[in-house]
Each structure stands twice: as C-alpha cells, then as structure tokens.
Specification:
The chain is α+β, with helices and mostly antiparallel strands. It has ten helices and 15 strands. The protein folds into two domains: about 180 residues, no CATH class; about 130 residues, no CATH class. A hairpin with a 2-residue loop joins strand 14 and strand 15.
Length: about 300
C-alpha cells in the first residue's frame, strides 16, 4: 500500500480524503504499534540490510552549540544523552527525506528565520515534529524501569492522542494539500544570550527552541488561531533565558486547558522554574519585567476569548 496524496481539513484536525481511499489514521495506528521494527517515517519493515538510526536531536545541532554531552529528561524522570536519543529509520528515509529536512532547516536557521515563506514554515513544523514525535516514540521503546522490564515509559494508547501530529509529519513523504490556512502558530523570538535550549510538551502540542540569540515557539493543531490573534506587531524580542522558559510553559498551559482530558493538576518542574496550576493558566513564580508581563497577560486574554467562543 502506498499513499501519494494527503488532504486535511485542519479546522477538524483530521484527514478527510486521500487519492487511494486509505484510512490514514488506521494505517498509522497499526504501524505505530510496531515502531520498534518499523521506520518511523515510511513504516517499512527494518532488517540488517536497511536499518539505521536517526538522531532525534541532530548531530550538527548539538555540535554547533557544544551540547555533545547534552541530555533530555524523559517521562520516567531519567535523563538520556542526545547521542543516545535515536529512533529506528530506514536508510532511504534517513539519508534522503530526513537529510533534506535537516539541510533545509539549517539554511533557514542560518538566515535567522527571516522572510519566511509557507514552505519555510512547513519545514520548521516538520523538523520540530520529527524531534517531538521521535522523542515520544523513543519512550514507547524504552522500559519505564530497567529493573522491571516490560512496561514502557509511554503506552501506545497514550500516543494515540497525537495522531493528528503524526499525520502532519507524513507531509515529509507525501504530497499534502492544506485547507483553511496553517495548522500551527509560529512565533520567532530573539534573546539576549547565546546558549541553546529546548522545551516541549508533545501532549500539549507545543515546543520552543533557542538557538543562541534566535529561536521560535510553535504550537500545533490550533488552525493558526494564536498567530491570527497575536498581530505581527506583537513580538517576543530580547528575552532572557528565564523568560524563554516562561514563554514555553505559557503555551503548554494554554493548550493544556484546551485538552480537557489532559489538563494537568500536578506541579511541573522545569530546571529553574516551578509552575502551579491556577484556574485558567499556570502562573509562573518568577519576576517578569513590565514589557514581557504585558505580552504574557495578552496570551491569557487570547485564551480566555477562545474559550468563550468554543463554549
């Protein structure tokens, strides 16, 4: 079976038609259950002749920002070095499609995310999804407790909630028609320091990257709502590292309240920031300058307006 065209209605966040009349949701669910022996892009069977490993955080990135010993925290509170954060992929996808995405993304980064076309934004979205969903799939492979093998960090039932994002990732391989605008909101941000950082919450469909003094926050499956609500004049610029984390978690909290079955009531710890649930949003326990606080509160107002429209 081979798909060659995917057609989305993003207002409904689901596939509604493709040329071969294939149920892409069922196709993905069937293959994601066997991801340890499948390529996570094309889902072909992997064997000794075509098996390779895709670095979820690409080598060029952690070398560029001196993150060779960098780590990511997994769902079982363990840390995994970027070097070991890999996912099975076939050689064709790894050396072809994924390599092309990496090269295109590097060029966009080198241009500091300026003058972005729709195709550029799609590349950023695809690259981010590769990182977010690759990490999620890694957690379905790794044991939750190495002393008690069998139970994985994440179950297949949990990642089923992310099927819309897995469908969007298939745009790497298949021609995709977009209706009703972009299925994401993308915000380019600037910073006052040169370090690298990455914050994401796949189940809240948002991620933030800091590549030195330039970066972005992206939130998926919102029909571009937040980007439409926040005008082009409303920009996050010259942020401190703490403000970067506040901004990332602001989007996590806003999106969590849109996903009623996933709304968090536990405390979330992220390095230097502790955030607690406060009614409509997580209120950062951190002092913010007046300019940034104004923008942060504007995000809250946008969320409240959207909630009133959807209620």
């Amino acid at each position: 079976m081979r798909l060659n065209f995917i057609y989305f209605n993003f207002d409904k966040s689901q596939l509604i038609k493709n040329l071969n009349k294939v149920d892409i949701k069922e196709f993905l669910e069937d293959n994601l259950k066997k991801i340890n022996s499948k390529c996570f892009i094309c889902f072909c069977d992997l064997g000794s002749d075509n098996l390779s490993k895709e670095h979820i955080i690409p080598k060029w990135l952690f070398k560029k920002f001196n993150q060779t010993n960098g780590e990511i925290k997994l769902g079982n509170s363990s840390n995994l070095k970027y070097q070991r954060l890999t996912i099975p992929a076939c050689k064709d996808c790894n050396n072809g499609l994924l390599s092309e995405i990496e090269q295109d993304f590097k060029l966009i980064l080198e241009e500091n995310f300026t003058n972005l076309t729709f195709e550029d934004e799609l590349t950023i979205a695809q690259w981010t999804l590769k990182v977010m969903l690759g990490t999620i799939l890694k957690e379905t492979i790794l044991d939750k407790d190495i002393r008690n093998r069998g139970e994985k960090i994440l179950s297949f039932e949990e990642i089923q909630k992310l099927i819309p994002l897995f469908i969007l990732l298939q745009s790497v391989k298949y021609e995709t028609k977009f209706e009703n605008g972009k299925p994401w909101s993308l915000f380019i941000t600037t910073f006052d320091s040169e370090d690298y950082d990455y914050q994401s919450h796949s189940f809240f469909k948002s991620a933030s990257f800091k590549f030195g003094k330039i970066g972005f926050t992206i939130t998926f499956d919102d029909s571009g709502y937040y980007k439409k609500a926040i005008t082009n004049e409303f920009k996050f610029t010259n942020l401190s590292h703490k403000q970067f984390i506040v901004l990332a978690y602001s989007f996590f909290s806003l999106r969590s309240n849109e996903l009623k079955d996933l709304t968090a009531h536990k405390e979330i710890t992220s390095n230097i920031l502790l955030i607690k649930n406060k009614k409509l949003f997580f209120k950062p326990k951190i002092l913010l300058d007046k300019n940034f606080l104004t923008k942060y509160n504007h995000l809250i107002e946008i969320y409240q307006k959207r909630s009133n429209v959807n209620s």
